[in-house]
Amino acid sequence: RPARTQAERLSIHKPIMDALRSAWPTEDPTAYSDDPLLGPTYYRVGKFTYDIHGSHHVQRFELDAVIDSPELRVDRVVFRATSNWGGNHTCIYRLKLFGHV
Q: Which residues of the chain have a pLDDT value below 50?
């Protein structure tokens, strides 16, 4: 799909922001939109903490914000690790994303 026009981005911005505000009502909108590194077309839809003491090394996390709208499709996903329990390296062996069309 060609890049969205400015008008298209603005028309989908409000419903996305409404869903994100519902998921994180106490957070400032800058915490989940308009990331300084990624730009205005990326939105945070989940925030997870891996349990290093969990009973299994494979852990599953559900999205905090669900934006279920037929006109919204993504062709890029960013996964960002902000901490690694004090280690020198962060290893992500497998990341699976599930959704529907």
A: none
